Amino acid sequence: MELPLDRPRFACAACKRLKKRCDRREPRCTYCLRSANRGISPPSETASRQFEDDTTHFPAVYFLNSDLFQRSIGQLSSPPVTLAPELQSFVRNKSNMRDHATSYFTKIHPWIPFISKRVFYEGVLSSFMPTPAEHVLLLAAVKLVTTSPTTQDARSMIYKHIKAMFTELEVIGQLTLKTLQALTLLALYELGHAVYPAAYLTIGLCARYGIALGLDETVRGIMQSSWNMIDLEEKRRTWWAIVILDRFVHLGCPEKTPVTAEPTADSVLPMDDQLWDTNTSESVHTLSSPPTPTMGRFGLTVQAGILLGKALRNLRDSCSMPQGPSRTLQDDEAEVLENTIFALAKVSSEEARARGIGICGLTKMCYRQSNAEEKDLYIASQMVHIGTLNDTLTYPGTQEEVSPFLLDAVYRSAIIYMQEYVSTGSQDLLRGINEFRSALEKINGRWKAAGIYLQLLEAHDTTNILR
């Protein structure tokens, strides 16, 4: 019996799965007939499901041809994720999470402010919508970094679950800002608790992840069409936070090269924190802008981090370069860096007094890279006012506000005092050494890396290797 010519077209089961059309008027659909003529069997249920599953994977065109991606797909989607029950349980209590969020924005955010407080409370901590995987991960990272480990080993089970979650997100191809921010907090946790080599490797992963998202372009003033000014500032701050961590992690191994590229003089700095909080625009500051208190604390911190990178590069090049004209140029650069660091530290101190900023230490840690050995003792005394530091650390809750960026400065200052004490036997220097030790003991209650620095000081005492 011949079918009516006006019967509607439709897809058979196999062709529908492959988004093909077939015609009911034929005993078998056109696709199936062609497949049969070529000796190819119609796709099985398993093969069809595999094809459909592949459409939810990360689009390889994002990396294989980025221009084609922008013109065809345009934006990345978030694939479905199965969360570990341990992670869901870790952040389920909203009241508890709000306490950790308050702790984070009070005690950590001031010295590395790269997560928008407004976006976090309204979009991540909000209980008015289902919590996506990236938000759960960020909440877990916030809680992790605000919780002091109960033992010297910070590799807790929840830490391992968070690490495993990042691996799963990498496998399924999730690239989002919130995931990167959670990864950056994990790197900060590993750095502060001396979880190596994980800290070193995680910071490198953060850099690659940020580049994949295009965050490195934000400091060059490039703005994609999908970014508004609030998004742009948060992305820019996240990238600068990664750059700072990448410089800091090389303090003890200056012979290694940072992952992130050296910023240029016209690289855009983050705006003042108060202006960011109120979404108020201001004139743009760049790395070539002279440091002023109006630049904002995070802008000054970024400048300190970049100077640290330059000082480490100068030290690395000087150690590998023989005497000659090039070495003289390296020494001249070292002197310029030293003067710039001193000027920046002065401005930072004014900013701290004006706004009541707590202990940071990032600008101070640049001092120890100076090649002017005759100034070492003066530099050490200026890095950390040891009596003031210990007095400050006795106040309730103050240890929670201490940045791990301070630790290397305390440790290097103690070494300089120990060197001088061996030569002079001064009791004032001995008291200073004990003050530094006491400061590290107190900070160890918050950041376990302080305990590792104490062990290094003991090793210096035992071996008399004072370098």
UniProtKB/TrEMBL annotation:
Record domain Zn(2)-C6 fungal-type: where: 11-34
GO biological process, one term: DNA-templated transcription
Keywords on record: Metal-binding, Nucleus, Transcription, Transcription regulation
Compartments where found: Nucleus
Any one Gene Ontology cellular component term annotated for this protein: nucleus
Main subcellular localisation: nucleus
Entry keyword annotation includes Metal-binding: yes
Molecular functions per Gene Ontology: DNA binding; DNA-binding transcription factor activity, RNA polymerase II-specific; zinc ion binding
Protein name: Zn(2)-C6 fungal-type domain-containing protein
Upper taxonomic lineage: Eukaryota, Fungi, Dikarya, Ascomycota, Pezizomycotina
